[in-house]
Specification:
The structure holds two protein chains of two kinds. In chain A, 24% of the residues lie in helices and 29% in strands. Chain A has helices at residues 2-27, 40-49, and strands at residues 55-60, 67-69, 75-78, 85-86, 97-102, 105-110, 117-119, 122-123, 128-129, 136-138, 141-146. In chain A, strand 5 (97-102) and strand 6 (105-110) form a beta hairpin. The longest helix of chain A has 26 residues, at 2-27. Chain B is mainly α. Chain B has one domain (24-461). Chain B has a two-stranded antiparallel sheet with strand order 1-2. Chain B has a two-stranded antiparallel sheet with strand order 3-4. In chain B, strand 1 and strand 2 (194-196) form a beta hairpin. Chain B is globular. In chain B, 48% of the residues are buried. The chains are: A alpha+beta, B mainly alpha.
Protein backbone atom coordinates (compact mmCIF):
# COMPACT_ATOMS: atom_id res chain seq x y z
CA UNK A 1 0.00 0.00 0.00
CA UNK A 2 2.65 2.52 1.06
CA UNK A 3 4.91 1.08 -1.59
CA UNK A 4 2.41 1.59 -4.41
CA UNK A 5 1.73 5.11 -3.18
CA UNK A 6 5.38 6.11 -3.27
CA UNK A 7 5.90 4.12 -6.45
CA UNK A 8 3.22 6.01 -8.31
CA UNK A 9 4.58 9.37 -7.24
CA UNK A 10 8.02 8.26 -8.39
CA UNK A 11 6.53 7.21 -11.71
CA UNK A 12 4.85 10.59 -12.11
CA UNK A 13 8.12 12.36 -11.46
CA UNK A 14 9.89 10.04 -13.83
CA UNK A 15 7.55 11.26 -16.53
CA UNK A 16 8.34 14.87 -15.66
CA UNK A 17 12.06 14.14 -15.74
CA UNK A 18 11.73 12.37 -19.08
CA UNK A 19 9.92 15.41 -20.43
CA UNK A 20 12.59 17.73 -19.09
CA UNK A 21 15.25 15.54 -20.66
CA UNK A 22 13.64 16.09 -24.01
CA UNK A 23 13.54 19.82 -23.33
CA UNK A 24 17.24 19.70 -22.53
CA UNK A 25 18.25 17.75 -25.60
CA UNK A 26 16.17 20.10 -27.68
CA UNK A 27 18.00 23.16 -26.47
CA UNK A 28 20.99 22.24 -28.56
CA UNK A 29 19.11 20.83 -31.51
CA UNK A 30 20.01 22.49 -34.74
CA UNK A 31 17.63 24.99 -36.15
CA UNK A 32 18.54 27.53 -38.73
CA UNK A 33 17.32 30.63 -37.05
CA UNK A 34 17.71 30.68 -33.36
CA UNK A 35 16.53 33.07 -30.78
CA UNK A 36 19.36 34.18 -28.57
CA UNK A 37 19.40 32.23 -25.35
CA UNK A 38 22.05 33.86 -23.24
CA UNK A 39 23.99 31.64 -20.92
CA UNK A 40 22.86 28.29 -22.26
CA UNK A 41 24.63 27.93 -25.50
CA UNK A 42 28.02 29.31 -24.98
CA UNK A 43 29.03 26.97 -22.20
CA UNK A 44 27.81 23.90 -24.07
CA UNK A 45 29.33 24.75 -27.41
CA UNK A 46 32.54 26.05 -25.88
CA UNK A 47 33.26 22.78 -24.18
CA UNK A 48 33.12 20.80 -27.38
CA UNK A 49 34.92 22.90 -29.92
CA UNK A 50 37.14 25.32 -28.08
CA UNK A 51 37.85 28.50 -29.93
CA UNK A 52 36.65 27.84 -33.46
CA UNK A 53 33.94 30.30 -34.63
CA UNK A 54 30.73 28.36 -35.00
CA UNK A 55 28.13 31.02 -35.41
CA UNK A 56 27.53 34.56 -36.42
CA UNK A 57 25.45 36.64 -34.07
CA UNK A 58 23.80 39.95 -34.80
CA UNK A 59 24.21 42.02 -31.66
CA UNK A 60 22.72 45.36 -32.69
CA UNK A 61 20.31 46.64 -35.28
CA UNK A 62 16.97 45.48 -36.56
CA UNK A 63 18.04 41.85 -36.76
CA UNK A 64 19.54 41.72 -33.25
CA UNK A 65 19.41 38.23 -31.83
CA UNK A 66 19.63 36.46 -35.17
CA UNK A 67 22.17 33.67 -35.30
CA UNK A 68 23.57 31.90 -38.31
CA UNK A 69 25.47 28.69 -37.96
CA UNK A 70 28.75 28.86 -39.83
CA UNK A 71 29.17 25.87 -42.11
CA UNK A 72 32.21 26.93 -44.12
CA UNK A 73 30.36 28.64 -46.92
CA UNK A 74 30.89 32.36 -47.37
CA UNK A 75 28.34 34.68 -45.86
CA UNK A 76 27.14 37.55 -47.96
CA UNK A 77 25.67 40.56 -46.28
CA UNK A 78 23.70 43.34 -47.88
CA UNK A 79 20.27 44.48 -48.87
CA UNK A 80 20.00 42.14 -51.83
CA UNK A 81 17.40 39.41 -51.42
CA UNK A 82 19.84 36.63 -52.04
CA UNK A 83 22.27 37.67 -49.33
CA UNK A 84 22.79 35.23 -46.52
CA UNK A 85 22.01 38.01 -44.07
CA UNK A 86 19.47 40.33 -45.61
CA UNK A 87 20.00 43.72 -44.01
CA UNK A 88 17.04 46.00 -43.83
CA UNK A 89 19.24 48.93 -43.03
CA UNK A 90 19.26 52.31 -44.75
CA UNK A 91 23.01 52.60 -44.36
CA UNK A 92 23.82 49.27 -45.97
CA UNK A 93 24.54 48.72 -49.65
CA UNK A 94 22.96 46.09 -51.85
CA UNK A 95 26.08 43.95 -51.69
CA UNK A 96 27.87 45.24 -48.71
CA UNK A 97 30.39 42.80 -47.29
CA UNK A 98 31.42 39.18 -47.32
CA UNK A 99 32.70 36.86 -44.64
CA UNK A 100 34.64 33.91 -45.95
CA UNK A 101 36.64 31.07 -44.53
CA UNK A 102 40.31 30.70 -45.40
CA UNK A 103 41.96 27.82 -43.65
CA UNK A 104 40.57 28.01 -40.15
CA UNK A 105 40.08 31.77 -40.02
CA UNK A 106 37.20 33.91 -41.16
CA UNK A 107 37.98 37.02 -43.18
CA UNK A 108 35.77 40.00 -43.78
CA UNK A 109 36.01 41.99 -46.96
CA UNK A 110 34.12 45.03 -48.12
CA UNK A 111 32.37 44.70 -51.46
CA UNK A 112 32.62 48.35 -52.39
CA UNK A 113 29.90 49.60 -50.10
CA UNK A 114 28.95 53.25 -49.84
CA UNK A 115 29.24 53.63 -46.11
CA UNK A 116 31.97 51.13 -45.44
CA UNK A 117 32.44 48.17 -43.18
CA UNK A 118 34.23 48.47 -39.86
CA UNK A 119 36.06 45.77 -37.96
CA UNK A 120 36.08 47.05 -34.42
CA UNK A 121 37.13 50.68 -35.14
CA UNK A 122 39.15 50.10 -38.31
CA UNK A 123 37.65 50.56 -41.74
CA UNK A 124 37.90 47.41 -43.82
CA UNK A 125 39.80 48.14 -47.01
CA UNK A 126 41.30 44.74 -47.65
CA UNK A 127 40.28 41.30 -46.36
CA UNK A 128 40.89 41.28 -42.61
CA UNK A 129 40.95 38.34 -40.25
CA UNK A 130 38.01 38.38 -37.85
CA UNK A 131 38.86 37.23 -34.32
CA UNK A 132 36.16 35.82 -32.05
CA UNK A 133 33.92 38.37 -30.42
CA UNK A 134 35.19 41.40 -32.32
CA UNK A 135 32.29 43.51 -33.60
CA UNK A 136 31.85 44.12 -37.32
CA UNK A 137 29.73 47.17 -38.03
CA UNK A 138 27.68 47.53 -41.20
CA UNK A 139 25.48 50.59 -41.16
CA UNK A 140 23.47 50.28 -37.97
CA UNK A 141 23.95 46.54 -37.74
CA UNK A 142 26.69 45.01 -35.62
CA UNK A 143 27.63 41.35 -35.91
CA UNK A 144 30.25 39.20 -34.31
CA UNK A 145 31.55 35.66 -34.49
CA UNK A 146 31.15 33.35 -31.55
CA UNK A 147 32.28 29.86 -30.79
CA UNK B 1 13.59 33.34 -57.13
CA UNK B 2 10.68 33.54 -54.78
CA UNK B 3 9.21 36.53 -53.14
CA UNK B 4 11.66 38.99 -51.65
CA UNK B 5 12.85 37.83 -48.29
CA UNK B 6 13.06 40.51 -45.69
CA UNK B 7 14.66 40.82 -42.35
CA UNK B 8 14.60 37.72 -40.28
CA UNK B 9 13.53 35.38 -43.05
CA UNK B 10 16.62 36.07 -45.02
CA UNK B 11 19.40 34.49 -43.03
CA UNK B 12 18.07 31.00 -43.43
CA UNK B 13 17.81 31.03 -47.16
CA UNK B 14 21.48 30.51 -47.76
CA UNK B 15 21.95 27.57 -45.46
CA UNK B 16 18.98 25.34 -45.93
CA UNK B 17 21.19 22.48 -46.98
CA UNK B 18 23.10 22.59 -43.73
CA UNK B 19 19.92 22.47 -41.70
CA UNK B 20 18.15 19.69 -43.51
CA UNK B 21 20.21 16.85 -42.26
CA UNK B 22 20.14 18.09 -38.68
CA UNK B 23 16.42 18.71 -38.27
CA UNK B 24 14.95 15.70 -36.51
CA UNK B 25 11.18 15.51 -36.40
CA UNK B 26 11.35 13.78 -33.00
CA UNK B 27 8.13 11.92 -33.58
CA UNK B 28 9.71 8.80 -32.06
CA UNK B 29 10.26 10.67 -28.80
CA UNK B 30 6.64 11.69 -28.86
CA UNK B 31 5.43 8.12 -29.31
CA UNK B 32 7.71 6.90 -26.54
CA UNK B 33 6.46 9.55 -24.13
CA UNK B 34 2.86 8.85 -25.14
CA UNK B 35 3.45 5.22 -24.25
CA UNK B 36 4.90 6.32 -20.93
CA UNK B 37 1.89 8.55 -20.28
CA UNK B 38 -0.48 5.68 -21.07
CA UNK B 39 1.51 3.46 -18.71
CA UNK B 40 1.26 6.00 -15.89
CA UNK B 41 -2.47 6.37 -16.47
CA UNK B 42 -2.98 2.59 -16.48
CA UNK B 43 -1.05 2.22 -13.24
CA UNK B 44 -3.15 5.02 -11.75
CA UNK B 45 -6.34 3.22 -12.74
CA UNK B 46 -5.01 -0.01 -11.27
CA UNK B 47 -4.22 1.71 -7.97
CA UNK B 48 -7.69 3.22 -7.81
CA UNK B 49 -9.28 -0.18 -8.41
CA UNK B 50 -7.06 -1.83 -5.82
CA UNK B 51 -7.69 0.80 -3.18
CA UNK B 52 -11.41 0.90 -3.86
CA UNK B 53 -11.54 -2.90 -3.52
CA UNK B 54 -12.81 -3.49 -6.98
CA UNK B 55 -11.68 -6.75 -8.50
CA UNK B 56 -8.46 -6.38 -10.46
CA UNK B 57 -8.70 -7.86 -13.88
CA UNK B 58 -7.13 -7.76 -17.29
CA UNK B 59 -9.84 -5.26 -18.19
CA UNK B 60 -7.64 -2.41 -16.93
CA UNK B 61 -4.89 -3.29 -19.37
CA UNK B 62 -7.43 -3.08 -22.15
CA UNK B 63 -8.52 0.34 -20.96
CA UNK B 64 -4.90 1.40 -20.98
CA UNK B 65 -4.39 0.11 -24.49
CA UNK B 66 -7.58 1.81 -25.67
CA UNK B 67 -6.28 5.06 -24.20
CA UNK B 68 -2.97 4.57 -25.96
CA UNK B 69 -4.83 3.74 -29.17
CA UNK B 70 -6.86 6.94 -28.97
CA UNK B 71 -3.76 9.07 -28.59
CA UNK B 72 -1.97 6.86 -31.09
CA UNK B 73 -4.44 8.11 -33.68
CA UNK B 74 -3.64 11.68 -32.67
CA UNK B 75 0.04 10.85 -32.90
CA UNK B 76 -0.32 9.43 -36.41
CA UNK B 77 -2.23 12.56 -37.40
CA UNK B 78 0.55 14.75 -36.06
CA UNK B 79 3.10 12.60 -37.88
CA UNK B 80 1.13 13.09 -41.05
CA UNK B 81 -0.01 16.71 -40.85
CA UNK B 82 2.49 18.45 -38.60
CA UNK B 83 5.64 16.33 -38.77
CA UNK B 84 7.90 18.88 -37.12
CA UNK B 85 5.56 19.70 -34.27
CA UNK B 86 6.82 19.78 -30.74
CA UNK B 87 7.26 16.26 -29.32
CA UNK B 88 6.29 17.14 -25.77
CA UNK B 89 2.93 18.84 -26.13
CA UNK B 90 0.86 15.79 -27.00
CA UNK B 91 2.27 13.46 -24.29
CA UNK B 92 1.79 16.11 -21.62
CA UNK B 93 -1.81 16.60 -22.71
CA UNK B 94 -2.34 12.83 -22.78
CA UNK B 95 -1.03 12.45 -19.23
CA UNK B 96 -3.19 15.27 -17.89
CA UNK B 97 -6.29 14.06 -19.68
CA UNK B 98 -5.68 10.45 -18.61
CA UNK B 99 -5.15 11.33 -14.97
CA UNK B 100 -8.24 13.51 -15.15
CA UNK B 101 -10.26 10.56 -16.43
CA UNK B 102 -8.92 8.33 -13.65
CA UNK B 103 -9.77 10.96 -11.06
CA UNK B 104 -13.27 11.46 -12.42
CA UNK B 105 -13.76 7.70 -12.40
CA UNK B 106 -12.50 7.57 -8.85
CA UNK B 107 -14.96 10.26 -7.76
CA UNK B 108 -17.70 8.44 -9.65
CA UNK B 109 -17.01 5.34 -7.58
CA UNK B 110 -17.35 7.32 -4.37
CA UNK B 111 -20.52 9.02 -5.61
CA UNK B 112 -22.04 5.72 -6.68
CA UNK B 113 -21.41 4.32 -3.24
CA UNK B 114 -23.05 7.35 -1.67
CA UNK B 115 -25.98 7.19 -4.08
CA UNK B 116 -26.57 3.53 -3.27
CA UNK B 117 -26.44 4.26 0.42
CA UNK B 118 -28.92 7.10 0.13
CA UNK B 119 -31.04 5.31 -2.44
CA UNK B 120 -30.60 7.99 -5.08
CA UNK B 121 -30.07 7.44 -8.77
CA UNK B 122 -26.55 6.78 -9.93
CA UNK B 123 -25.11 9.39 -12.21
CA UNK B 124 -21.72 8.52 -13.63
CA UNK B 125 -19.65 11.16 -15.37
CA UNK B 126 -16.75 9.14 -16.68
CA UNK B 127 -18.48 7.59 -19.74
CA UNK B 128 -19.51 11.08 -20.82
CA UNK B 129 -16.01 12.39 -20.30
CA UNK B 130 -14.53 9.53 -22.35
CA UNK B 131 -16.99 10.41 -25.10
CA UNK B 132 -15.97 14.06 -24.86
CA UNK B 133 -12.30 13.10 -25.03
CA UNK B 134 -12.96 11.17 -28.23
CA UNK B 135 -14.91 14.06 -29.71
CA UNK B 136 -12.19 16.47 -28.62
CA UNK B 137 -9.50 14.38 -30.27
CA UNK B 138 -11.58 14.28 -33.45
CA UNK B 139 -11.85 18.06 -33.31
CA UNK B 140 -8.10 18.23 -32.68
CA UNK B 141 -7.58 16.19 -35.83
CA UNK B 142 -9.95 18.42 -37.74
CA UNK B 143 -8.12 21.58 -36.72
CA UNK B 144 -4.77 20.06 -37.66
CA UNK B 145 -6.09 19.08 -41.08
CA UNK B 146 -8.01 22.26 -41.87
CA UNK B 147 -5.41 24.75 -40.66
CA UNK B 148 -2.46 24.03 -42.87
CA UNK B 149 -0.65 27.12 -41.78
CA UNK B 150 -1.46 29.18 -38.72
CA UNK B 151 -1.03 32.37 -40.73
CA UNK B 152 -4.25 31.66 -42.58
CA UNK B 153 -6.05 32.46 -39.33
CA UNK B 154 -5.19 36.13 -39.76
CA UNK B 155 -7.54 36.30 -42.71
CA UNK B 156 -10.49 35.45 -40.50
CA UNK B 157 -9.38 37.26 -37.38
CA UNK B 158 -12.25 39.76 -37.38
CA UNK B 159 -14.78 37.00 -38.05
CA UNK B 160 -13.34 35.01 -35.20
CA UNK B 161 -13.50 38.06 -32.96
CA UNK B 162 -17.15 38.64 -33.77
CA UNK B 163 -18.10 34.99 -33.34
CA UNK B 164 -16.17 34.87 -30.09
CA UNK B 165 -17.95 37.92 -28.72
CA UNK B 166 -21.35 36.58 -29.74
CA UNK B 167 -20.62 33.22 -28.15
CA UNK B 168 -19.43 34.91 -25.00
CA UNK B 169 -22.48 37.11 -24.74
CA UNK B 170 -25.04 34.57 -25.92
CA UNK B 171 -25.99 32.89 -22.62
CA UNK B 172 -26.51 36.24 -20.93
CA UNK B 173 -29.18 37.35 -23.38
CA UNK B 174 -31.03 34.11 -23.98
CA UNK B 175 -34.03 33.16 -21.86
CA UNK B 176 -33.45 30.87 -18.93
CA UNK B 177 -35.03 27.91 -20.72
CA UNK B 178 -32.04 27.65 -23.03
CA UNK B 179 -29.51 29.33 -20.80
CA UNK B 180 -30.15 28.26 -17.22
CA UNK B 181 -28.24 29.63 -14.28
CA UNK B 182 -26.11 26.80 -12.90
CA UNK B 183 -24.10 27.27 -9.72
CA UNK B 184 -24.78 30.98 -9.81
CA UNK B 185 -23.34 31.57 -13.28
CA UNK B 186 -25.34 32.09 -16.44
CA UNK B 187 -22.78 30.71 -18.87
CA UNK B 188 -24.45 27.55 -20.11
CA UNK B 189 -26.49 26.70 -23.16
CA UNK B 190 -28.76 23.71 -22.93
CA UNK B 191 -29.04 21.93 -26.26
CA UNK B 192 -31.10 18.83 -25.74
CA UNK B 193 -29.23 16.44 -23.48
CA UNK B 194 -25.99 18.40 -23.68
CA UNK B 195 -25.04 21.60 -22.01
CA UNK B 196 -22.39 23.66 -23.68
CA UNK B 197 -20.32 26.48 -22.25
CA UNK B 198 -19.77 28.69 -25.30
CA UNK B 199 -17.47 31.01 -23.38
CA UNK B 200 -14.77 28.35 -23.41
CA UNK B 201 -14.56 28.53 -27.19
CA UNK B 202 -14.75 32.27 -27.34
CA UNK B 203 -11.56 32.44 -25.30
CA UNK B 204 -9.58 30.86 -28.12
CA UNK B 205 -11.46 32.76 -30.83
CA UNK B 206 -10.96 36.14 -29.19
CA UNK B 207 -7.31 35.33 -28.71
CA UNK B 208 -6.91 34.73 -32.43
CA UNK B 209 -8.67 38.01 -33.07
CA UNK B 210 -6.45 39.93 -30.71
CA UNK B 211 -3.30 38.43 -32.15
CA UNK B 212 -4.37 39.41 -35.65
CA UNK B 213 -5.50 42.84 -34.56
CA UNK B 214 -2.34 43.62 -32.64
CA UNK B 215 -0.15 42.53 -35.52
CA UNK B 216 -1.88 44.83 -37.97
CA UNK B 217 -2.18 47.78 -35.61
CA UNK B 218 1.03 47.28 -33.70
CA UNK B 219 2.67 50.49 -34.74
CA UNK B 220 -0.17 52.50 -33.27
CA UNK B 221 0.55 51.25 -29.80
CA UNK B 222 4.22 51.96 -30.13
CA UNK B 223 3.57 55.63 -30.75
CA UNK B 224 4.25 57.47 -27.56
CA UNK B 225 2.06 60.22 -26.23
CA UNK B 226 3.07 62.73 -23.65
CA UNK B 227 5.93 62.14 -21.28
CA UNK B 228 4.99 62.36 -17.65
CA UNK B 229 7.55 61.81 -14.90
CA UNK B 230 9.90 60.12 -17.32
CA UNK B 231 7.32 57.60 -18.49
CA UNK B 232 5.99 57.59 -22.03
CA UNK B 233 2.26 57.53 -21.61
CA UNK B 234 0.31 56.02 -24.46
CA UNK B 235 -2.09 58.27 -26.32
CA UNK B 236 -5.61 58.20 -25.00
CA UNK B 237 -7.14 56.89 -28.23
CA UNK B 238 -4.75 53.94 -28.25
CA UNK B 239 -6.23 52.79 -25.01
CA UNK B 240 -9.09 51.36 -27.07
CA UNK B 241 -8.21 47.67 -26.91
CA UNK B 242 -7.43 47.71 -23.21
CA UNK B 243 -10.65 49.48 -22.46
CA UNK B 244 -12.49 47.09 -24.76
CA UNK B 245 -11.05 44.05 -22.99
CA UNK B 246 -11.82 45.64 -19.68
CA UNK B 247 -15.42 46.39 -20.66
CA UNK B 248 -16.00 42.87 -21.99
CA UNK B 249 -14.56 41.32 -18.85
CA UNK B 250 -16.70 43.52 -16.69
CA UNK B 251 -19.73 42.70 -18.85
CA UNK B 252 -19.11 38.99 -18.34
CA UNK B 253 -18.85 39.64 -14.64
CA UNK B 254 -22.04 41.64 -14.44
CA UNK B 255 -24.33 39.71 -16.76
CA UNK B 256 -23.09 36.18 -16.31
CA UNK B 257 -21.62 36.35 -12.83
CA UNK B 258 -18.60 34.44 -14.09
CA UNK B 259 -15.52 35.72 -12.30
CA UNK B 260 -13.15 33.12 -13.73
CA UNK B 261 -13.68 33.78 -17.43
CA UNK B 262 -13.58 37.49 -16.80
CA UNK B 263 -10.23 37.29 -15.05
CA UNK B 264 -8.81 34.89 -17.62
CA UNK B 265 -9.85 36.98 -20.56
CA UNK B 266 -8.50 40.21 -19.18
CA UNK B 267 -5.20 38.79 -18.03
CA UNK B 268 -4.51 37.10 -21.35
CA UNK B 269 -5.19 40.21 -23.39
CA UNK B 270 -3.03 42.32 -21.14
CA UNK B 271 -0.14 39.90 -21.60
CA UNK B 272 -0.62 39.86 -25.37
CA UNK B 273 -0.56 43.64 -25.46
CA UNK B 274 2.67 43.58 -23.50
CA UNK B 275 4.20 40.94 -25.77
CA UNK B 276 3.22 42.92 -28.86
CA UNK B 277 4.53 46.28 -27.74
CA UNK B 278 7.23 45.39 -25.21
CA UNK B 279 6.05 48.31 -23.16
CA UNK B 280 5.49 47.82 -19.45
CA UNK B 281 3.33 50.92 -19.33
CA UNK B 282 0.47 48.91 -20.84
CA UNK B 283 0.68 46.44 -18.02
CA UNK B 284 0.65 49.28 -15.52
CA UNK B 285 -2.37 50.89 -17.18
CA UNK B 286 -4.10 47.50 -17.35
CA UNK B 287 -3.44 46.73 -13.72
CA UNK B 288 -4.73 50.13 -12.68
CA UNK B 289 -7.92 49.52 -14.65
CA UNK B 290 -8.13 46.07 -13.09
CA UNK B 291 -7.82 47.39 -9.57
CA UNK B 292 -10.42 50.05 -10.35
CA UNK B 293 -12.78 47.50 -11.85
CA UNK B 294 -12.25 45.09 -9.00
CA UNK B 295 -13.07 47.74 -6.39
CA UNK B 296 -16.19 48.82 -8.25
CA UNK B 297 -17.30 45.22 -8.73
CA UNK B 298 -16.69 44.45 -5.08
CA UNK B 299 -18.84 47.33 -3.95
CA UNK B 300 -21.65 46.71 -6.41
CA UNK B 301 -22.11 42.95 -6.52
CA UNK B 302 -22.90 40.68 -3.66
CA UNK B 303 -21.55 37.59 -5.38
CA UNK B 304 -18.12 39.20 -5.59
CA UNK B 305 -18.28 40.17 -1.93
CA UNK B 306 -19.23 36.63 -1.07
CA UNK B 307 -16.27 35.17 -2.97
CA UNK B 308 -13.89 37.53 -1.27
CA UNK B 309 -15.35 36.77 2.15
CA UNK B 310 -14.96 33.04 1.47
CA UNK B 311 -11.41 33.65 0.46
CA UNK B 312 -10.43 35.74 3.46
CA UNK B 313 -11.83 33.24 5.95
CA UNK B 314 -13.57 30.15 4.57
CA UNK B 315 -14.31 28.84 8.05
CA UNK B 316 -16.20 31.97 9.08
CA UNK B 317 -18.82 31.39 6.41
CA UNK B 318 -18.56 27.59 6.59
CA UNK B 319 -22.20 26.99 7.37
CA UNK B 320 -23.72 29.73 5.18
CA UNK B 321 -25.40 28.99 1.88
CA UNK B 322 -22.83 29.71 -0.83
CA UNK B 323 -20.26 30.20 1.90
CA UNK B 324 -16.78 28.92 2.44
CA UNK B 325 -17.82 25.28 2.84
CA UNK B 326 -16.40 24.24 -0.50
CA UNK B 327 -13.01 25.93 -0.09
CA UNK B 328 -12.74 24.79 3.51
CA UNK B 329 -13.44 21.20 2.48
CA UNK B 330 -10.84 21.48 -0.28
CA UNK B 331 -8.30 22.80 2.22
CA UNK B 332 -9.12 19.98 4.64
CA UNK B 333 -8.61 17.57 1.76
CA UNK B 334 -5.26 19.07 0.83
CA UNK B 335 -4.28 18.99 4.50
CA UNK B 336 -5.22 15.32 4.73
CA UNK B 337 -3.09 14.61 1.71
CA UNK B 338 -0.07 16.37 3.10
CA UNK B 339 3.24 15.89 1.38
CA UNK B 340 2.82 12.34 0.15
CA UNK B 341 -0.94 12.11 -0.32
CA UNK B 342 -3.28 9.39 0.85
CA UNK B 343 -2.71 7.26 -2.21
CA UNK B 344 -4.95 7.02 -5.26
CA UNK B 345 -8.40 5.84 -4.31
CA UNK B 346 -7.67 5.95 -0.59
CA UNK B 347 -8.79 9.49 0.21
CA UNK B 348 -12.23 11.10 0.47
CA UNK B 349 -12.22 13.69 -2.33
CA UNK B 350 -15.98 13.26 -2.76
CA UNK B 351 -16.49 15.34 0.39
CA UNK B 352 -15.68 18.45 -1.62
CA UNK B 353 -18.60 19.70 -3.70
CA UNK B 354 -17.88 19.80 -7.45
CA UNK B 355 -14.87 17.57 -6.86
CA UNK B 356 -14.69 16.48 -10.48
CA UNK B 357 -14.82 19.90 -12.14
CA UNK B 358 -13.50 23.03 -10.45
CA UNK B 359 -12.10 21.23 -7.45
CA UNK B 360 -10.41 18.34 -9.19
CA UNK B 361 -7.04 19.73 -8.22
CA UNK B 362 -8.12 19.48 -4.58
CA UNK B 363 -8.97 15.81 -5.16
CA UNK B 364 -5.60 15.22 -6.79
CA UNK B 365 -3.81 17.16 -4.07
CA UNK B 366 -5.50 14.98 -1.47
CA UNK B 367 -4.68 11.65 -3.07
CA UNK B 368 -1.28 12.40 -4.59
CA UNK B 369 -0.15 14.96 -2.04
CA UNK B 370 2.16 17.86 -2.57
CA UNK B 371 4.66 15.71 -4.47
CA UNK B 372 2.12 14.53 -7.01
CA UNK B 373 0.49 17.93 -7.33
CA UNK B 374 3.88 19.53 -7.95
CA UNK B 375 4.56 16.96 -10.67
CA UNK B 376 1.25 17.77 -12.35
CA UNK B 377 1.89 21.50 -12.17
CA UNK B 378 5.29 20.86 -13.73
CA UNK B 379 3.63 18.99 -16.56
CA UNK B 380 1.48 22.07 -17.15
CA UNK B 381 4.60 24.20 -17.00
CA UNK B 382 6.38 22.03 -19.54
CA UNK B 383 3.34 22.29 -21.80
CA UNK B 384 3.31 26.08 -21.60
CA UNK B 385 7.08 26.22 -21.87
CA UNK B 386 7.02 24.33 -25.14
CA UNK B 387 4.31 26.62 -26.41
CA UNK B 388 6.32 29.70 -25.46
CA UNK B 389 9.43 28.26 -27.03
CA UNK B 390 7.58 27.61 -30.25
CA UNK B 391 6.32 31.17 -30.13
CA UNK B 392 9.88 32.43 -29.72
CA UNK B 393 11.19 30.33 -32.56
CA UNK B 394 8.41 30.87 -35.07
CA UNK B 395 9.30 33.44 -37.70
CA UNK B 396 6.16 35.53 -38.06
CA UNK B 397 4.81 38.06 -35.61
CA UNK B 398 1.28 36.70 -35.69
CA UNK B 399 2.52 33.23 -34.79
CA UNK B 400 4.60 34.64 -31.98
CA UNK B 401 1.69 36.53 -30.50
CA UNK B 402 -0.78 33.71 -30.94
CA UNK B 403 1.58 31.07 -29.54
CA UNK B 404 2.50 33.26 -26.60
CA UNK B 405 -1.13 34.11 -25.94
CA UNK B 406 -2.34 30.51 -26.12
CA UNK B 407 0.43 29.26 -23.84
CA UNK B 408 -0.30 32.01 -21.42
CA UNK B 409 -4.02 31.25 -21.53
CA UNK B 410 -3.21 27.70 -20.50
CA UNK B 411 -1.10 28.63 -17.48
CA UNK B 412 -3.47 31.42 -16.54
CA UNK B 413 -6.30 28.88 -16.34
CA UNK B 414 -4.17 26.67 -14.12
CA UNK B 415 -3.19 29.63 -11.98
CA UNK B 416 -6.75 30.86 -11.53
CA UNK B 417 -8.17 27.46 -10.63
CA UNK B 418 -5.30 26.13 -8.52
CA UNK B 419 -4.89 29.51 -6.88
CA UNK B 420 -8.60 29.45 -6.05
CA UNK B 421 -8.54 25.93 -4.67
CA UNK B 422 -5.50 26.58 -2.52
CA UNK B 423 -6.88 29.93 -1.27
CA UNK B 424 -4.16 32.04 -2.85
CA UNK B 425 -6.75 34.12 -4.71
CA UNK B 426 -10.55 34.21 -4.42
CA UNK B 427 -12.12 31.10 -5.92
CA UNK B 428 -13.48 31.97 -9.32
CA UNK B 429 -14.71 28.67 -10.63
CA UNK B 430 -13.15 27.65 -13.89
CA UNK B 431 -12.04 24.23 -15.01
CA UNK B 432 -8.52 22.91 -14.81
CA UNK B 433 -7.53 22.36 -18.45
CA UNK B 434 -7.66 18.66 -19.49
CA UNK B 435 -8.16 17.43 -15.94
CA UNK B 436 -11.65 18.59 -15.10
CA UNK B 437 -14.89 17.04 -16.17
CA UNK B 438 -16.57 19.18 -18.82
CA UNK B 439 -16.95 18.82 -22.55
CA UNK B 440 -16.69 22.45 -23.60
CA UNK B 441 -13.50 23.06 -21.72
CA UNK B 442 -11.96 19.87 -23.09
CA UNK B 443 -12.93 20.66 -26.68
CA UNK B 444 -11.68 24.24 -26.45
CA UNK B 445 -8.40 23.21 -24.90
CA UNK B 446 -7.82 20.57 -27.55
CA UNK B 447 -8.36 23.19 -30.23
CA UNK B 448 -5.85 25.36 -28.39
CA UNK B 449 -3.32 22.53 -28.37
CA UNK B 450 -3.89 21.80 -32.05
CA UNK B 451 -3.12 25.42 -32.93
CA UNK B 452 -0.06 25.34 -30.69
CA UNK B 453 1.15 22.19 -32.44
CA UNK B 454 0.62 23.90 -35.77
CA UNK B 455 2.71 26.88 -34.67
CA UNK B 456 5.45 24.65 -33.27
CA UNK B 457 5.48 22.73 -36.53
CA UNK B 458 6.05 25.98 -38.41
CA UNK B 459 8.74 26.97 -35.92
CA UNK B 460 10.74 23.76 -36.15
CA UNK B 461 10.26 22.99 -39.80
CA UNK B 462 13.53 23.46 -41.69
CA UNK B 463 13.33 26.29 -44.16
CA UNK B 464 12.97 25.42 -47.76
CA UNK B 465 14.73 28.62 -48.64
CA UNK B 466 13.85 30.77 -51.59
CA UNK B 467 17.16 29.76 -53.10
CA UNK B 468 17.55 26.28 -54.54
CA UNK B 469 20.08 24.11 -52.80
CA UNK B 470 23.56 24.57 -54.25
CA UNK B 471 24.34 21.61 -56.47
CA UNK B 472 27.92 20.46 -56.83
CA UNK B 473 29.20 22.29 -59.84
CA UNK B 474 31.31 20.86 -62.60
CA UNK B 475 34.76 22.40 -63.04
CA UNK B 476 34.45 25.51 -65.07
CA UNK B 477 36.29 24.04 -68.06
CA UNK B 478 33.82 21.19 -68.44
CA UNK B 479 30.68 23.13 -67.70
CA UNK B 480 28.09 23.62 -70.38
CA UNK B 481 26.83 27.00 -71.28
CA UNK B 482 23.50 27.56 -69.59
CA UNK B 483 21.02 30.35 -69.51
CA UNK B 484 20.94 31.89 -66.08
CA UNK B 485 17.97 33.94 -65.10
CA UNK B 486 19.00 37.23 -63.69
CA UNK B 487 17.76 37.64 -60.12
CA UNK B 488 15.39 40.56 -59.90
Amino acid sequence: MQLTRAGFLALLWLFVLAALRVVRSDLYAASGLRVAMPGFRRSAAGKVRGKVPRQLVVTHGALAGTRITLDGRPILMGRADDSTLVLDDDYASTRHARLSLRGTDWYVEDLGSTNGTYLDRAKVTQPLRVPLGVPIRIGKTVIELRS
Amino acid sequence: MGSPVQGAVGPVAGQSAGVDKAAPTRRGTELLLLGFAAFVVTIALMLVEANQEQQLSLRIVWYGLAFLGLFGVAHVAVRRFAPYADPLILPCVALLNGLGLVMIYRIDLAMTEKAIRLGREINNDVPKQILWTTVALALFLGVLIVIKDHRMLTRYSYTFGLVGLVLLALPAFLPSVIAPTINGAKIWLKLGPFSVQPGEFSKVLLLVFFAGFLVSKRDLFMAAGRRVLGVDLPRARDLGPVVFAWAVSLGVLVFQKDLGTSLLFYGTILVMLYVATERAVWVAVGLLLFVGGAIVAYNLFTHVQQRVANWVDPLATYADAGGGYQIAQALFGLGTGGVGGTGLGAGRPDLVPLANTDFITAAIGEELGFIGMAALLLVYTVLALRGMRSALAVRDTFGKLLGGGLSFLLVMQVFVVVGGVTKLIPMTGITAPFLSYGGSSLLANYVLVAVLLRISDAARRPQTGSRPRPVPQAPIAEAHTVMVERPT
